[in-house]
């Protein structure tokens, strides 16, 4: 296939696509299939537009959301472990040795 015969996309579409990837935490491969755009093209757009302020703000928001989810999960796990330790403490406190 000769070079230069590919589709052309305007700047706004490229930026919106990069923002869409960041907002939805989807893989580049999945978005490439959804939008019928080559994966490498999307990676190039991410490299080019990913550092722009409007895209970065979305990325930091998504990573903050992910951090909150991870911290909540860790808190649930620690509470569960704490309950198990409390039950074990009561069990061994009753042992008459």
UniProtKB/TrEMBL annotation:
<dbReference type="Pfam" id="PF01527">
    <property type="entry name" value="HTH_Tnp_1"/>
</dbReference>
<keyword id="KW-0175">Coiled coil</keyword>
<protein>
    <submittedName>
        <fullName>Transposase</fullName>
    </submittedName>
</protein>
<dbReference type="InterPro" id="IPR009057">
    <property type="entry name" value="Homeodomain-like_sf"/>
</dbReference>
<feature type="coiled-coil region">
    <location>
        <begin position="61"/>
        <end position="88"/>
    </location>
</feature>
<dbReference type="InterPro" id="IPR051839">
    <property type="entry name" value="RD_transcriptional_regulator"/>
</dbReference>
<dbReference type="InterPro" id="IPR002514">
    <property type="entry name" value="Transposase_8"/>
</dbReference>
């Amino acid at each position: 296939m000769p070079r230069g015969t590919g589709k052309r996309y305007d700047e706004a579409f490229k930026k919106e696509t990069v923002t869409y990837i960041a907002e939805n935490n989807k893989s580049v491969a999945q978005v490439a299939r959804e939008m019928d755009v080559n994966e490498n093209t999307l990676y190039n757009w991410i490299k080019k537009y990913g550092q722009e302020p409007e895209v970065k703000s979305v990325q930091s928001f998504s990573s903050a959301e992910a951090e909150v989810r991870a911290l909540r999960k860790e808190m649930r796990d620690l509470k569960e472990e704490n309950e198990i330790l409390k039950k074990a403490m009561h069990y061994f406190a009753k042992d008459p040795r």
